[in-house]
Design goal:
TPR-like_helical_dom_sf, SH3 domain and tetratricopeptide repeats 2, 34 helices, SH3TC1/SH3TC2, TPR_rpt
Length: about 675
Amino acid sequence: MDLNTGQEEEEAENFAPILAFLDHKGYADHFKSLYDFSFSFLTSSFYSFSEEDELVAYLEASRKWAKRNHMTWAHARLCFLLGRLSVRKVKLSQARVYFEEAIHILNGAFEDLSLVAALYINLAAIYLRQRLRHKGSALLEKAAALLACLPDRESSAKNELEVVAYVLRRGIAVGSCSLEARACFLAIRLLLSLGQHEEVLPFAERLQLLSGHPPASDAVATILTFLYDKKYLPHLAVASVRQCGAQNAQGMSLPIWQVHLVLQNSTKLLRIPSSSWGEVSTLACPTLRQALAACEEQADRSTQRALCLILSKVYLQHRSPDGAIHYLSQALVLGQLLSEQEAFESALSLAWAYLLASQAKKALDILEPLLYSMQETESVTQKGVVHNLLGLALQGEGRVNRAAKSYFRALNRARETGDVRNQAVTLANLGHLTLKSRAQWPARDYLLQAVRLYSELQASMETDMELVQVLLWLAQVLVYGRQLTSGRLCYETALLFGLSHRHLKSQLQVTKSLCHFYSSVSPNPEACITYHEHWLTLAQQLRDREMEGRLLESLGQLYRNLNTARSLRRSLTCIKESLRIFIDLEERDKAAEAWLGAGRLHYLMQEDELVELYLQVGLPQAPLLTWAIWRGSCTLQTDQLALEKGDVLAKSLEGGSTWAAAWTQDGNQG
């Protein structure tokens, strides 16, 4: 409605349209824009005013004409609009005057409940902001009642939160859980509309406690899940989704966005960059299984297949192909019901899982019929992929010649299509096959060709991880041929790729090989310690406590072999850390060895006063070791340790140690 007529404002006829529009008794749908949160009336009803000050002047003149003509509803609505615009400019006292005038004019009329509620709530918010509670206690009660009791009322102002807080305090003061819950709900709705997500959380958590029963608690749990994710609280986000799932009725599925949220947040819990290399945390499994069960109830085959593939991936990550086979078998059945392409992909995945489970025969049972069925197809790439997997299956069955032929067929298909990556994969598999057959020179040639092809590909995490495996095989060939420098270079290059992508498992694989290289193939104690330290860091990042304990034990031995004051001190630190882990894991024998090892190190560092303490704790936990010491049936190292213990015990006896004397007597009895 363009109300800018260009005439002087004093002429009454110029204000007739706006006054007629606003002077409607009761509520009408076209008034909705006057009361909403976003001030949409500025663009819908008064779009012709380019400046807000012009609009204020026009509305003020209209108010005077409405007052003069006793147009109650137009007068009240104009006061309300002027009050809202004053609040927008933070002129609270001026806004208070307008709101009070509007309430006085209406004189208790409730025909337009939206207008009445907006007036009382806006005025109450100003009273609270200006600390005028004593002036309008009755008005505050009315505003609180309107705010709490009107259903589906839209918020009209940011300062409404003041009144919501007042209602919340009243609910707590009188012990009304329902009023407190209503206030929490209103606060959540208002803060979400303002985009203040961080402030919503305490209200949502309190509302969840107060509601305590579905469907209200389900809705709050959904909001909490969203908020925990926003605030980067992955533990709480995952727990909230699980609670939603536990409360859902049987057959109701979790929303897909919640499943996705669990997948994201469960990787954050590991505090490792697993999301960057596509791994799925086991913490997501309960949610995935629940979603899968719900999809089975609803016959949602596409989502069901996707969930089966994700669950199979978790099992493959943890080297449990049997579990992966279970889900991939389901995915194959579902894929056959969906489309030819999805059936093909599922069949390949299942065959791969059988290969990882060392069940090459079952993989062949899938791949050979699949290859036969593809005789009519024109997809050269798909045939090449099947030939490649078929070669792996035949290799697993020990049929080397047939495996080589299958690899060559796959290589030819890849060359036909110019697929560099598939060529590289096939050459790598050929290299591995010939390596296993003890044909070192052909293996070296195939693997070098594969490395060259990988170097032509655009760098990505997936291709670089494949290259890591090829470099490990190539290093193995070179080391067998006594080309140690080249072999070491391959190992270290592979480690660099793992480091660049922060791929922990590939780093672990390469680091193990480097530790073996520097301990057995080309001994270098300092380098061996360096890579053992890196291996220890990886174990800590993977949270593998058992591996961490073993590595600390090995590092203690390596540092002790250096036999310097500094290395002995570091060795003692490693042994004590391993002792703590073995105690936590309740590995008594390992813990006993660590106690005795720490005692030996204190002896070597001539800290005799501590040796007796470690022997006193360690020996009762290792009765077999004690027996072996006194029976003379242990290794040279243990014999040496026994002699050292004897020295310490002798010194203890000289000092009058009753425990040492008793221990010696027990030993002599053995």
